[in-house]
Write the C-alpha coordinates for this entry.
Amino acid sequence: MSAIITDHRWEIYGVVVLIAVLIYVLCRRKNVTETQPQKWYSPLLLVGIGVLVFGITKSQAAVRLQSLVIEARMTGFGEKLAYYQNPELRQAQLNAYLKKLNSTVNTSYRYRIPIGAETLRNTTQRLQTALIQPKLSEDTRQAASAAYGNLIALNASQETQHDVPFPTAGPSGYVINSNLDYTDKKLTIMGNHSSFVLSGGDISIEKSTMVFDGIDFQALRRYYQGILVTPDSSVVIRNGVVENLDQTLDGITWINVEFRNSMIRVKGHPFNLVNVTFNDCDLRWLVPFGGEVGIDLKNRIEKVNSQPITFAYLGSAVQPRPGQN
Protein backbone atom coordinates (compact mmCIF):
# COMPACT_ATOMS: atom_id res chain seq x y z
CA MET A 1 0.00 0.00 0.00
CA SER A 2 1.30 3.47 -0.77
CA ALA A 3 2.58 5.59 2.06
CA ILE A 4 -0.02 7.68 3.85
CA ILE A 5 0.40 11.44 4.11
CA THR A 6 -0.98 12.87 7.33
CA ASP A 7 -1.24 16.35 5.86
CA HIS A 8 -4.74 16.99 4.40
CA ARG A 9 -3.73 19.18 1.47
CA TRP A 10 -4.21 16.35 -1.02
CA GLU A 11 -7.74 15.76 0.26
CA ILE A 12 -8.60 19.43 -0.18
CA TYR A 13 -6.99 19.58 -3.61
CA GLY A 14 -8.77 16.39 -4.64
CA VAL A 15 -12.14 17.79 -3.58
CA VAL A 16 -11.49 21.00 -5.54
CA VAL A 17 -10.66 19.01 -8.68
CA LEU A 18 -13.74 16.82 -8.18
CA ILE A 19 -15.96 19.90 -7.93
CA ALA A 20 -14.41 21.28 -11.11
CA VAL A 21 -15.11 18.03 -12.96
CA LEU A 22 -18.71 18.01 -11.77
CA ILE A 23 -19.22 21.61 -12.93
CA TYR A 24 -17.78 20.68 -16.30
CA VAL A 25 -20.14 17.71 -16.65
CA LEU A 26 -23.20 19.76 -15.66
CA CYS A 27 -22.37 22.57 -18.05
CA ARG A 28 -21.68 20.26 -20.97
CA ARG A 29 -25.20 18.92 -21.42
CA LYS A 30 -25.30 18.35 -25.16
CA ASN A 31 -24.15 15.14 -26.81
CA VAL A 32 -20.77 15.02 -28.50
CA THR A 33 -20.42 12.97 -31.68
CA GLU A 34 -17.33 11.02 -32.63
CA THR A 35 -16.70 13.33 -35.60
CA GLN A 36 -16.37 16.46 -33.48
CA PRO A 37 -12.81 17.66 -32.91
CA GLN A 38 -11.28 17.16 -29.48
CA LYS A 39 -11.73 20.16 -27.20
CA TRP A 40 -8.63 21.99 -26.07
CA TYR A 41 -9.51 21.37 -22.44
CA SER A 42 -9.89 17.55 -22.76
CA PRO A 43 -6.24 16.85 -21.88
CA LEU A 44 -6.58 19.14 -18.87
CA LEU A 45 -9.64 17.18 -17.78
CA LEU A 46 -7.72 13.90 -17.97
CA VAL A 47 -4.84 15.44 -16.01
CA GLY A 48 -7.32 16.70 -13.40
CA ILE A 49 -8.86 13.25 -12.99
CA GLY A 50 -5.40 11.73 -12.65
CA VAL A 51 -4.44 14.27 -9.99
CA LEU A 52 -7.70 13.57 -8.17
CA VAL A 53 -7.08 9.81 -8.09
CA PHE A 54 -3.46 10.31 -7.03
CA GLY A 55 -4.44 12.76 -4.31
CA ILE A 56 -7.08 10.50 -2.85
CA THR A 57 -4.82 7.42 -2.83
CA LYS A 58 -2.11 9.44 -1.07
CA SER A 59 -4.41 10.71 1.66
CA GLN A 60 -6.06 9.45 4.82
CA ALA A 61 -9.35 9.53 2.89
CA ALA A 62 -8.36 6.33 1.07
CA VAL A 63 -7.65 4.49 4.32
CA ARG A 64 -10.90 5.68 5.89
CA LEU A 65 -12.86 4.64 2.79
CA GLN A 66 -11.21 1.20 2.67
CA SER A 67 -11.85 0.72 6.38
CA LEU A 68 -15.53 1.60 6.02
CA VAL A 69 -15.99 -0.71 3.03
CA ILE A 70 -14.30 -3.70 4.70
CA GLU A 71 -16.09 -3.11 8.00
CA ALA A 72 -19.44 -2.99 6.18
CA ARG A 73 -18.61 -6.28 4.44
CA MET A 74 -17.65 -7.94 7.71
CA THR A 75 -20.84 -6.71 9.38
CA GLY A 76 -22.87 -8.16 6.51
CA PHE A 77 -21.07 -11.49 6.75
CA GLY A 78 -21.62 -11.52 10.51
CA GLU A 79 -25.35 -10.95 10.08
CA LYS A 80 -25.54 -13.83 7.60
CA LEU A 81 -23.63 -16.09 9.99
CA ALA A 82 -26.24 -15.36 12.66
CA TYR A 83 -28.83 -17.14 10.50
CA TYR A 84 -26.78 -20.21 9.59
CA GLN A 85 -29.40 -22.47 11.27
CA ASN A 86 -32.04 -21.25 8.86
CA PRO A 87 -32.88 -24.28 6.67
CA GLU A 88 -33.13 -21.99 3.67
CA LEU A 89 -29.45 -21.13 4.05
CA ARG A 90 -27.74 -24.14 2.56
CA GLN A 91 -24.28 -25.33 3.47
CA ALA A 92 -22.93 -24.24 0.10
CA GLN A 93 -24.18 -20.69 0.65
CA LEU A 94 -22.69 -20.53 4.14
CA ASN A 95 -19.42 -21.93 2.80
CA ALA A 96 -19.32 -19.16 0.17
CA TYR A 97 -19.97 -16.48 2.80
CA LEU A 98 -17.16 -17.85 4.97
CA LYS A 99 -14.65 -17.87 2.12
CA LYS A 100 -15.50 -14.26 1.28
CA LEU A 101 -15.15 -13.32 4.93
CA ASN A 102 -11.75 -15.02 5.07
CA SER A 103 -10.59 -13.11 1.98
CA THR A 104 -11.80 -9.82 3.48
CA VAL A 105 -10.01 -10.45 6.78
CA ASN A 106 -6.76 -11.33 4.99
CA THR A 107 -6.97 -8.13 2.95
CA SER A 108 -7.39 -6.08 6.12
CA TYR A 109 -4.42 -7.83 7.77
CA ARG A 110 -2.13 -7.57 4.74
CA TYR A 111 -2.70 -3.87 4.10
CA ARG A 112 -3.19 -2.80 7.73
CA ILE A 113 -6.71 -1.51 7.14
CA PRO A 114 -8.21 -0.90 10.61
CA ILE A 115 -11.49 -2.54 11.55
CA GLY A 116 -13.66 -1.47 14.49
CA ALA A 117 -13.21 -3.55 17.66
CA GLU A 118 -16.96 -4.13 17.98
CA THR A 119 -17.21 -5.47 14.43
CA LEU A 120 -14.28 -7.82 15.04
CA ARG A 121 -15.75 -8.98 18.35
CA ASN A 122 -19.24 -9.63 16.96
CA THR A 123 -17.98 -11.48 13.89
CA THR A 124 -15.59 -13.61 15.96
CA GLN A 125 -18.30 -14.54 18.45
CA ARG A 126 -20.65 -15.59 15.64
CA LEU A 127 -17.92 -17.75 14.16
CA GLN A 128 -17.37 -19.35 17.56
CA THR A 129 -21.08 -20.16 17.72
CA ALA A 130 -20.98 -21.65 14.23
CA LEU A 131 -17.92 -23.79 14.96
CA ILE A 132 -19.47 -25.59 17.92
CA GLN A 133 -22.48 -26.72 15.87
CA PRO A 134 -22.37 -30.44 15.05
CA LYS A 135 -24.29 -30.19 11.77
CA LEU A 136 -21.67 -28.29 9.78
CA SER A 137 -20.25 -30.11 6.79
CA GLU A 138 -16.50 -30.70 6.81
CA ASP A 139 -15.92 -28.16 4.00
CA THR A 140 -17.93 -25.51 5.86
CA ARG A 141 -16.12 -26.26 9.12
CA GLN A 142 -12.78 -25.86 7.34
CA ALA A 143 -13.83 -22.49 5.94
CA ALA A 144 -15.12 -21.35 9.34
CA SER A 145 -11.90 -22.47 11.05
CA ALA A 146 -9.77 -20.57 8.54
CA ALA A 147 -11.83 -17.40 8.93
CA TYR A 148 -11.77 -17.73 12.72
CA GLY A 149 -7.99 -18.14 12.86
CA ASN A 150 -7.43 -15.18 10.58
CA LEU A 151 -9.82 -13.05 12.66
CA ILE A 152 -7.76 -13.86 15.77
CA ALA A 153 -4.62 -12.84 13.87
CA LEU A 154 -6.20 -9.59 12.69
CA ASN A 155 -7.34 -8.74 16.20
CA ALA A 156 -3.86 -9.43 17.60
CA SER A 157 -2.25 -7.35 14.85
CA GLN A 158 -4.52 -4.39 15.59
CA GLU A 159 -3.83 -4.66 19.32
CA THR A 160 -0.08 -4.44 18.89
CA GLN A 161 1.34 -0.95 19.22
CA HIS A 162 3.97 -1.13 16.51
CA ASP A 163 6.06 -3.46 14.39
CA VAL A 164 9.41 -4.54 15.76
CA PRO A 165 12.01 -5.38 13.11
CA PHE A 166 13.79 -8.68 13.44
CA PRO A 167 16.77 -8.37 15.82
CA THR A 168 20.23 -7.99 14.32
CA ALA A 169 21.36 -11.51 13.51
CA GLY A 170 24.29 -13.35 12.05
CA PRO A 171 24.20 -15.50 8.90
CA SER A 172 22.61 -18.40 10.81
CA GLY A 173 19.97 -16.31 12.56
CA TYR A 174 19.40 -14.70 15.95
CA VAL A 175 20.83 -17.12 18.52
CA ILE A 176 19.02 -17.31 21.87
CA ASN A 177 21.38 -18.53 24.59
CA SER A 178 19.32 -17.26 27.54
CA ASN A 179 15.62 -16.91 28.20
CA LEU A 180 13.82 -14.29 26.10
CA ASP A 181 10.97 -12.95 28.21
CA TYR A 182 7.87 -11.24 26.79
CA THR A 183 5.62 -10.22 29.68
CA ASP A 184 2.89 -7.58 29.37
CA LYS A 185 3.90 -6.84 25.78
CA LYS A 186 1.94 -5.91 22.65
CA LEU A 187 4.31 -6.45 19.74
CA THR A 188 4.45 -7.58 16.13
CA ILE A 189 7.86 -8.87 15.08
CA MET A 190 8.35 -8.97 11.33
CA GLY A 191 10.86 -10.91 9.28
CA ASN A 192 11.38 -12.71 6.00
CA HIS A 193 12.01 -16.27 7.10
CA SER A 194 14.37 -14.82 9.69
CA SER A 195 15.46 -17.37 12.30
CA PHE A 196 15.26 -17.49 16.06
CA VAL A 197 17.84 -20.19 16.83
CA LEU A 198 17.20 -21.71 20.26
CA SER A 199 20.48 -22.69 21.87
CA GLY A 200 20.11 -22.95 25.64
CA GLY A 201 17.36 -20.34 26.03
CA ASP A 202 13.63 -20.23 25.41
CA ILE A 203 10.93 -17.73 24.44
CA SER A 204 8.51 -17.14 27.30
CA ILE A 205 5.27 -15.23 26.59
CA GLU A 206 3.00 -14.20 29.46
CA LYS A 207 0.07 -11.75 29.60
CA SER A 208 1.00 -10.52 26.13
CA THR A 209 -0.33 -10.09 22.63
CA MET A 210 2.36 -11.13 20.16
CA VAL A 211 2.49 -11.60 16.39
CA PHE A 212 5.52 -13.27 14.76
CA ASP A 213 5.19 -12.84 10.99
CA GLY A 214 7.86 -14.30 8.73
CA ILE A 215 9.86 -15.75 11.66
CA ASP A 216 11.33 -19.26 11.71
CA PHE A 217 12.01 -21.06 15.01
CA GLN A 218 14.82 -23.61 15.05
CA ALA A 219 16.42 -25.62 17.85
CA LEU A 220 20.00 -26.88 17.69
CA ARG A 221 19.05 -30.11 19.41
CA ARG A 222 16.02 -32.23 18.69
CA TYR A 223 12.76 -31.83 20.63
CA TYR A 224 13.78 -28.73 22.52
CA GLN A 225 11.02 -26.88 24.41
CA GLY A 226 11.55 -23.36 23.17
CA ILE A 227 8.23 -21.48 22.90
CA LEU A 228 6.27 -21.29 26.17
CA VAL A 229 2.91 -19.48 26.17
CA THR A 230 0.59 -18.91 29.14
CA PRO A 231 -3.22 -19.12 28.61
CA ASP A 232 -3.60 -15.39 29.33
CA SER A 233 -1.73 -14.50 26.12
CA SER A 234 -2.79 -14.18 22.49
CA VAL A 235 0.00 -15.33 20.17
CA VAL A 236 0.04 -15.58 16.38
CA ILE A 237 2.84 -17.30 14.46
CA ARG A 238 2.44 -16.72 10.75
CA ASN A 239 4.43 -17.54 7.60
CA GLY A 240 7.19 -19.47 9.33
CA VAL A 241 8.93 -22.81 9.90
CA VAL A 242 9.17 -24.58 13.27
CA GLU A 243 11.99 -27.14 13.35
CA ASN A 244 13.29 -29.55 16.02
CA LEU A 245 11.01 -28.22 18.75
CA ASP A 246 8.96 -30.01 21.39
CA GLN A 247 5.99 -27.76 20.85
CA THR A 248 2.62 -27.44 22.57
CA LEU A 249 0.09 -25.93 20.16
CA ASP A 250 -2.15 -24.47 22.88
CA GLY A 251 -2.64 -20.71 23.10
CA ILE A 252 -1.25 -20.01 19.64
CA THR A 253 -2.83 -19.31 16.25
CA TRP A 254 -0.63 -20.94 13.61
CA ILE A 255 -1.10 -19.65 10.05
CA ASN A 256 0.88 -20.84 7.02
CA VAL A 257 3.37 -22.67 9.24
CA GLU A 258 5.40 -25.80 8.53
CA PHE A 259 6.46 -28.04 11.41
CA ARG A 260 9.56 -30.14 10.72
CA ASN A 261 11.01 -32.91 12.90
CA SER A 262 9.09 -31.68 15.91
CA MET A 263 7.27 -33.25 18.86
CA ILE A 264 3.63 -32.08 18.81
CA ARG A 265 1.50 -31.76 21.95
CA VAL A 266 -1.85 -30.34 23.03
CA LYS A 267 -3.06 -29.80 26.59
CA GLY A 268 -6.70 -28.81 26.23
CA HIS A 269 -6.46 -25.05 25.78
CA PRO A 270 -7.70 -23.31 22.59
CA PHE A 271 -5.50 -23.22 19.50
CA ASN A 272 -5.93 -22.62 15.77
CA LEU A 273 -4.30 -24.12 12.71
CA VAL A 274 -4.73 -22.46 9.32
CA ASN A 275 -2.90 -24.04 6.39
CA VAL A 276 -0.38 -25.83 8.64
CA THR A 277 1.77 -28.81 7.61
CA PHE A 278 3.50 -31.43 9.75
CA ASN A 279 6.52 -33.13 8.20
CA ASP A 280 8.37 -35.96 9.99
CA CYS A 281 6.80 -34.98 13.31
CA ASP A 282 6.37 -37.17 16.41
CA LEU A 283 2.67 -37.34 17.33
CA ARG A 284 2.92 -39.97 20.09
CA TRP A 285 1.87 -37.63 22.91
CA LEU A 286 -1.27 -36.37 21.20
CA VAL A 287 -3.30 -39.42 22.20
CA PRO A 288 -2.54 -40.05 25.92
CA PHE A 289 -2.54 -36.39 27.00
CA GLY A 290 -4.54 -34.61 24.31
CA GLY A 291 -7.87 -36.31 24.94
CA GLU A 292 -10.44 -36.35 22.16
CA VAL A 293 -8.96 -33.31 20.45
CA GLY A 294 -5.54 -34.98 20.44
CA ILE A 295 -6.97 -38.11 18.83
CA ASP A 296 -8.88 -36.04 16.27
CA LEU A 297 -5.82 -33.96 15.41
CA LYS A 298 -3.55 -37.00 15.11
CA ASN A 299 -6.01 -38.68 12.76
CA ARG A 300 -6.26 -35.55 10.62
CA ILE A 301 -2.48 -35.14 10.36
CA GLU A 302 -1.93 -38.77 9.42
CA LYS A 303 -4.80 -38.76 6.93
CA VAL A 304 -3.55 -35.81 4.87
CA ASN A 305 0.04 -37.16 4.73
CA SER A 306 2.07 -33.90 4.99
CA GLN A 307 -0.58 -31.79 3.29
CA PRO A 308 -1.80 -28.56 4.94
CA ILE A 309 -4.62 -28.81 7.47
CA THR A 310 -6.96 -26.24 8.97
CA PHE A 311 -8.39 -26.88 12.41
CA ALA A 312 -9.81 -24.82 15.27
CA TYR A 313 -10.12 -26.01 18.86
CA LEU A 314 -12.02 -23.69 21.19
CA GLY A 315 -11.40 -25.59 24.41
CA SER A 316 -13.89 -27.37 26.65
CA ALA A 317 -15.82 -24.08 26.87
CA VAL A 318 -15.69 -21.15 24.49
CA GLN A 319 -13.50 -18.56 26.17
CA PRO A 320 -13.09 -15.04 24.80
CA ARG A 321 -9.67 -14.21 23.50
CA PRO A 322 -7.85 -11.08 24.72
CA GLY A 323 -9.53 -8.01 23.32
CA GLN A 324 -12.91 -9.77 23.00
CA ASN A 325 -14.30 -9.01 26.47
The CA atoms of residues 293 and 313 lie 8 Å apart. Residues 9-58 form one domain. The radius of gyration is 25 Å.
